[in-house]
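Look at one record.

>
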Amino acid sequence: MDVLKHKCFLEELLFWTIKYEFPQKMVTFLLNMLPDQDYKIAFTKTFVQHYAFIMKTLKKSHESDTMSNRIVHISVQLFSNEELARQVTEECQLLDIMVTVLLYMMESCLIKSELQDEENSLHVVVNCGEALLKNNTYWPLVSDFINILSHQSVAKKFLEDHGLLVTWMNFVSFFQGMNLNKRELNEHVEFESQTYYAAFAAELEACAQPMWGLLSHCKVRETQEYTRNVVRYCLEALQDWFDAINFVDEPAPNQVTFHLPLHRYFAMFLSKAVKCQELDLDTILPDQEMLMKLMIHPLQIQASLSEIHSNMWVRNGLQIKGQAMTYVQSHFCNSMIDPDIYLLQVCASRLDPDYFISSVFERFKVVDLLTMASQHQNTVLDSEHERSMLEGALTFLVLLLSLRLHLGMTDDEILRAEMVAQLCMNDRTHSSLLDLIPENPNPKSGIIPGSLSFESVLSAVADFKAPVFEPGGSMQQGMYTPKAEVWDKEFDPVMVILRTVYRRDVQSAMDRYTAFLKQSGKFPGNPWPPYKKRTPLHPSYKGLIKLLHCKTLHIVLFTLLYKILMDHQNLSEHVLCMVLYLIELGLENSPEQESDEEESAGGQERCHDSWFPGSNLVSNMRHFINYVRVRVPETAPEVKREPPASTSSDGLASSQSSRRKSLQRENSGTAQVFSLVAERRKKFQEIINRNTSEANQVVRPKTSMKWSAPGATPQLTTAILEVKESILSLLIKLHHKLSGKQNSYYPPWLDDVDVLIHPEIPRYSHGDGMTAVERILLKAAVQSRLNKRIIEEICRKVTPPVPPKKISSAEKKTLDKEERRQKARERQQKLLAEFASRQKSFMETAMDVESPDADIAMEVATSEQHVSEAIYDCVICGQSGPSTEDRPTGLVVLLQASSVLGQCRNSTEPKRLPTTEEEQIYPWDTCAALHDVRLTTLQRYFKDSSCLQAVSIGWEGGVYVQTCGHTLHIDCHKSYMESLRNDQVLQGFSVDKGEFTCPLCRQFANSVLPCYPGNNVERSLWQSHSNKCMQDLVQEVEDLQEQLGTFPVSISSETNLSKEMESVMKDIKSTTQKKYTDYSKTPGSPDNDFLFMYSVARTNLELELVHRGGNLCSGGASTAGKRSCLNQLFHVLAMHMRLYSIDSAYNPWRKLTQPIQDKNSELSEELPEVPVLYRDVSSLLLIQILTMPQPLHKEHFACIIKVLFTLLYTQALAALSVKCSAEDRMAWKESGALKKNTSSGEKSWEVLLGHVISELSKGKMYEEGETEELTVVNPDSVECYLQQFCLPFLRITSLLQHHLFGGDLPSCQEDEEFTVLASCLGLLPSFQSAHQFTSASCLDWPVPAFDMISQWCSELASFGDRHPDQVKALLIQEPKWDLPRLLQLPENYNTIFQYYHRKTCTVCTKVPKDPAVCLVCGTFVCLKGLCCKQQSYCECVLHSQNCGAGTGIFLLINASVIIIIRGHRFCLWGSVYLDAHGEEDRDLRRGKPLYICKERYKVLEQQWVSHTFDHINKRWGPHYNGL
């Protein structure tokens, strides 16, 4: 680091720019002059000259992030230019400076390595806890280095410069062995360090990425020299490292580091050399001793992974699991686990296979388990971990022998295999797949190597599943799922195991595979992982096959097969599966040089032991092993038996003491003691001796001390076991065991010789353990005639597998235990199944929140016909009983204010969201606006109290009541609310506002609606005709309305029931805002309450109609099945309405049913009453019904409907008459007058229309200019008009009848809806035949029709005299409302984004930081904007109250997501815009073009209309008015 000497102004400028940590203005100033070529070169040289100074400033900086960004901002402009980079490299030693600066930077945070030999270690590593690593402060310098290495000319210089390579390897060795983990054996760690993030990031960025950069320049033969250089200095650095940590032959126990960058450099350059540069591997590999050392640490990591997954590291906390996951995670795996496994494969292919295999089992600590004895002692492992460690060891061997990532697969094959593995675990979205496929971490190398693109491979292996919406409310994104042939041919469990971060993903892949086989009918049971053929090995790695053909492995396989057959403990199906996999691998890859019948196994082959004659698996499979000598504890059952006289023996006990030299010479034909560990020691010793003579003295004492023979413990004794099995016979017996049948295996070639010629039969490719065994036996037979013969022999004389001769009591106990366990397991399965089915039936009844239109009968009303009282179940205390006045039961309900009805428009075309200045939405044509205008006009000309009964309110801010159908005692509910109040858990609702979730189905609710005692639905079936005449009924209805106090629950005595009814009424009132309940000119007048109450009933009926699609054609029960609470609601409303008396003089019933004599009321000075023809008939209906004593008689209900229908019909005729032209009017008037005196005059619309026209002509009704006319005035169109006019009333009335009296609604075609409903309501005499049906035939006048009509028309005429301009405007028009719809959105999201993200807010005229737009009315609002806050309410919350009475649906422009505001809570709903692959892009992070997903938008609209946001969306939170 030289002293800086400044010679020019530029240098001075740069110096101060660095000193002040790159102020933005200076950076811009210096960069702005770069287009000048001379300046560019001068500036680059100055920058390089100050590089060390930049590093020092960066290390000291407090704002290192900002500074880093600015440094890179400059350097990326300078170093991305290859020409410039090359020039500076030549003239200013850029590479030297960079490497030195990096080295110097890291030197400041080194600590002593504790790996291996804590006391005497000379190795130093970086300390991952330092800020330098924790905050990634080094990244700008490393990123510059990676940047310049991407230029071929610069990288060549680097790879040719030996001095630089030495320095660089020195730098890399600082990371070798960092972040060492020591296994905690006693206490749990107090503090979980999170340093591993820094360690993994550092290895990836500072070591791996430069490595990938260099590798990208070693692609052709001419670059062999570079590889040789790197490998050479890498090995030197490794040798230094082994010396520094004092490493001999055994790794220190209980410690692991995941960071071996030197090993990985070595591995990756080897792989490149063979794959691309045609180098001979052996010329660059080191000697055997070095290979033995090289394999130790990567193998240690593999064993530790298995230990971590076996929960042996739990005391180290969660972070150790985090490390194990990061090591295999997609961004790290091809710089970490892949090179490690490749390096182990290289070592395995060059070392003695027996040595390698025994090393693996020793590392995994399962050597002691590999004994033929039924009991053993494991000195290094607890028995509960034995099984999973054995599985780990075998799985690792399978991985090692199956993976071909670096051993011969092409880039395209690799990409395909990776993709298949990810898709098999789970369906994936396009973006997550891109993220999960390991990419080449060097950013310049492009996402995926290889000629085939990501997309073409994806379309070859996967099918696209379009985004769907699940009924549970969870929105699926567009997913890719594996094609059937991929499951069939390409599913590779080995690749899946390699790539799973979570163990559950392996299970998930197997479950999906099982489902595929069931579905396609290939295999019904539980399949085993399929065996997949591998790509051929590259010739350089042929040595790897030797592992499959070595005695040690065969002994292990034999032993494990024997143990599984004999049901020894700690073995599992997974172990068997892996054992069979290894046998199959061995058969698939048999060494070519062996002849079929190897009788000539030389004498020297046999001397070392007599387990197996040779090393070829094909021939060893048939070799029978008669007796084995084992070392067992004295308690073991084997000891009791006397050995036969002729025995000589063998054991797999891992004790050195049991290897007796004398025995070895005895008799070469009999089995011998074989010890894995001792074998391994011997091999290592031979190699060491070959290499160095003096190493011997150093090594031996040390290892023998560490490994005092476990066999020397006194309790062990030697026993001799009679085995008499070969691998083939064990396999056949296993087949019997797996199938549970004797003689289940029959050699297939005896029936069909072709099997031997074409062994690839599809029926063997999928299946369970039996299939696997059959496949292996077939392969063994195909490979050798002798094997075939032996298999046939075994099958002929097969006997049941021989259990050990005497079963000792200890074993009996374990067997009983197993049986008991099995039975317990079966019992548990049964219980669980029963529980699941119960749960399912419960789900089917109760939990059907998700689809509001499903028909589910809840037990609100028992279904027998003649029940005196309804019985309710309380979901809290579980008791059943009727609802009584003292202890009322209530329905769990959710009350919410709604303006959905008010959003109906009278056009069928939905409005579009404005995306240009021209398209604006004006709310004049909405239902709410028109009703508002009408009420205001009426109030101008008529008496206020009468106006408030002539209309309904609640189009905006009406209260909608819905229930989940569950009932509870009201006192139980109160104590439930208390317990919720005391519960400190953060709920998504506010208990103080009365909110809770239904105790049974957890549906959101906020009140309880008391159930009225008695039967809740009057069951008197519909009599065809009551025998009373119309006049009597009319009189009865009037009398009933007069008796005010006769409500069955006497109001005077306060019962619990009436109190509850009052409190629920208060709840209903407080649900909506005051402005939606106060319409009277005198605030607080009782007329307001009266109007509000019957309007609540109207709102609920109208909404139910909307939910049914606007008509009743579908019929059936109510939308929510019996989950409607309208009946209970009517009782509560009726009880309160009857508190308000209607002055009998003003009772509308009289005006409808009696001609009035006196005319003098007209002269009084106060405003007149609203004329009957201006009154809304549906409102009148509800007033009549709700002021009658409950329960109502059906005949009175029918009477009220008939009377009101006459009024409605007259209104229709009046509206029609206004629409006709003057000539038509004259014509109708005359034709009507002619027929007036016929018998059916009162039931003919022509006569009535003529009469209406003549009556109305008296006033000034027709004087105004012509209004829009009916196009063709022929009888059919008139009839159609009249029916359409009356239909809305008929629908509301039918619904009301359905809720009050039960009985299903009939279903019908749209064109016959009028007739069906009319007859259902009893308006239509039953003898009427359909073909000559007219709407007028439904009329049933209580008094002569012409008198009544004249009276009603005269009211209009007198009003017309005073206000001729209004008389026509106030006539009730034909209501043509379309269903409520959200605004239509444009196809492409960009259209919305471009218009709104720069749009200024109308309130504060600024461009909002978070713009949002209301999807109901199109208003543009500032989300969270303080600028538009009014009385502590932010604009979105305010708008949700004004536009939706507390419900707002907003599209957030900058995030493409929709948020829902409901009262005081809000939730993120999701997005209705998806990219081409069906995925959301929340916050527009990925920047993909987005298109509307119509299905999702439909679902949003449906939730809005059906008011189910609260039930379907689960994640609600309070917004504190801050949105």
